[in-house]
Amino acid sequence: MSFAETTKILAESRKVIEDGNENNTATLLTLILSVVTSVEHSIKKIESGMESIEKIKTTVTLLSADLRLSDYTVPVYKARLQKNYSSIIASIIPKDIVDYLITCDVLTIGDGQIIDHCESEEQKNRKLMDKLLRTSEEGFGEFLKALREDTEYQELADQIENTKVTHVDISTIQSCNKYTHRY
Predict the structure, then answer these.
(1) Residue 17 has pLDDT above 80, yes or no
(2) Do 124 and 118 form a contact (C-beta atoms < 8 A)?
(3) Whole-number Å distance between alpha carbons of 167 and 104
(4) Are 34 and 2 in contact (CB under 8 A)?
(5) This prediction's pTM
(6) 115 or 3: whose pLDDT is higher?
(7) How far apart are CA 183 and CA 176, in angstroms?
(8) Dmax over Cα atoms in the chain, in whole Å?
């Protein structure tokens, strides 16, 4: 029963009591108990609502602490590489690109040998991507230059360079990196 309903009943009941009802005291006590019960029920609802609000507040606080922009450690260039991972794996032949990156000191000769020992072009590209995702932003720039050296890969280089990266992308990659311990 709402407060407005209770107030209306009390006003009507008061009129009945004043008009000479024989059991005035009993009727009044019954009404008072009804109001007290209604108020207790309302208080319990409010307390329950406050508990729910506190739980939600705690959850929001924990989530916002996890999502602070200043906590992101994934550079944009790595997000661009990851967002284009499938395109890179499927489209390039890594030999000339690896050689170019070795001459620029982005990769070592040992890195080149590891990549070259992979059986398929796709495996070589995956290994190359693994190395690129662990390199610096300068290494990323040299990778784009290496792609542009070959007219066949210029469009791919533009696609990678112009890939839009949102805070959601960064957050997703950051979360994945936390679970795989890669930074």
Answers:
(1) no
(2) yes
(3) 31
(4) no
(5) 0.58
(6) 115
(7) 10
(8) 108
Q: Report which DSSP code applies to 152.
A: G
Q: Work out the pLDDT band at 128, boundaries 50, 70, 90.
A: very high
E strand or H helix that includes residue 73: none
Q: How far apart (Å, rounded) are the C-alpha atoms in residues 128 and 141?
A: 15
Whole-number pLDDT of residue 70? 43
Tokens representing residue 177 in the block: 């990196």
C-alpha distances in Å from residue 90, one per residue of 122, 164, 166, 177: 7, 21, 24, 23
Residue 45 CA to residue 51 CA, distance in Å, equals 10
Tens of pLDDT, residue by residue over 22-77, are 566 677 777 778 878 888 888 888 888 888 888 887 777 666 555 554 445 789 99
Q: How far apart are CA 123 and CA 134, in angstroms?
A: 17
d(Cα 126, Cα 69) in Å, to the nearest integer?
29
